[in-house]
Amino acid sequence: MTSTMIEGSPVTAAASLEAVDVAAWFGSSLVIDNVNLRMQPATVTALIGPSGCGKSTFLRVLNRMHEAVPGAQMAGEVLLNGEDIYAPGHRVTSVRQRIGIVFQKPNPFPAMSIADNVTAGLVLTGTRISRHDRETLVEESLTRAGLWNEVKDRLETSGSALSGGQQQRLCIARALANKPDVLLMDEPCSALDPMSTRWIEDTIRELGKTMTIVIVTHNLAQAVRVSQWSAFFLAEPGEPGGIVEQGSTDQLFSAPQDPRTADYVSGGFG
Ligand code: ADP
Ligand code: MG
Fold first, then answer.
1. How far, in Å, from the CA of 140 to the mean position of ligand 2?
2. Which helix (H) or strand (E) holds 164?
3. pTM of the model
4. Taking burial as the number of CB atoms within 10 A of a residue's CB, which of 54, 89, 237, 265 is the most buried?
5. pLDDT tens across 191-211, in order?
6. 268 pLDDT band (50/70/90 cuts)?
7. What is the mean pLDDT of residues 136-156?
């Protein structure tokens, strides 16, 4: 595992992630510009804002998934513990292992067992692990994702037999099995029922005590429940998206400085 980590960076203490003057394009279309955001260690940062303002694009820039889109480009820096993940010498697979991502629609591998789903990331990166260590990792990851008790007696059954909420927790476990420093989540609850949503929110709050988490959410109450810092993204008509305002979640929701933020957090648009 250690050999695939970026050298010289701590893997135990929570990491900081900082976007500096980030811009991103699809072809010639500039979709976000001038994004500066410091995502503090052991903190949940929420990205809010209407559809189409570039939140998902920004998230994909943060772990170098944006460059997988043909014709996509970015500018600026993304500093993980002060080191630019775009600097030459940083392998993309290693960056994506350290900065994991969970998407809106749970996407476990349907042909794989629950246990194999958890360790799928290790297979992709060619990480070798003993049977005992693998069992420990599966239990630890599923426990952190809040799923262990529900699946411990059927680890070798298919992941696709789980409910939607359980599948999403399985995807969280799969991301955690890579021992990431940062977990990115793109509307992780928007396909789930309220009970599953609350369960995942509990997991996010718990993980956020020790990990750096960035979550995109359309659910403003969710941002208030799970995050300590919030950034409001907006794209004016014909302009690229960017951060209008950021601050502690308490401050952003109770005393927004910009009238556009005030409109949005009071449910005015989007
Ligand atoms: P959000 O997540 O805030 O809804 P996105 O990051 O998905 O916003 O999209 C930002 C802008 O980039 C939108 O105008 C969207 O149409 C455009 N966009 C997103 N993905 C692509 C893509 N693969 N190719 C071209 N344009 C895209
Ligand atoms: Mg999006």
1. 30
2. helix 164-176
3. 0.93
4. 54
5. 999 999 999 999 999 999 999
6. low
7. 97
Which protein residues touch ligand 1 with a CB less than 6 Å away?
26, 31, 51-57, 69
How high is the pLDDT of residue 139?
A: 98
Phi/psi at 15 (nearest 5 deg)?
A: -95, 155
Residue 254 neighbours by CB under 8 Å, 6+ apart: none
The position carrying tokens 């309220």 is: 194
* pLDDT tens readout for residues 211-230: 999 999 999 999 999 999 99
Per-residue b or e along 228-260, where b marks 16 or more CB atoms closer than 10 Å to that residue's CB: bbbbbbbbeeeebbbbbbbbebeebbeebeeeb
Quick check: 138 and 119 in contact, CB under 8 A? yes
Q: Which residue's CA is minimally distant from atom 18 of ligand 1?
A: 26
The residue whose C-alpha atom lies closest to atom 26 belonging to ligand 1 is 26
Token pair for 103: 């998407």
State the Cα–Cα distance between residues 213 and 86, nearest whole angstrom: 20
Q: What domains can be seen in the chain, in order of their start residue?
A: 17-104+182-265 (3.40.50.300)
Which atom of ligand 1 lies at the shortest distance from residue 49's CA?
3
Q: Following DSSP, what letter does each residue of 106-123 receive, concatenated?
A: ----TTSBHHHHHTHHHH
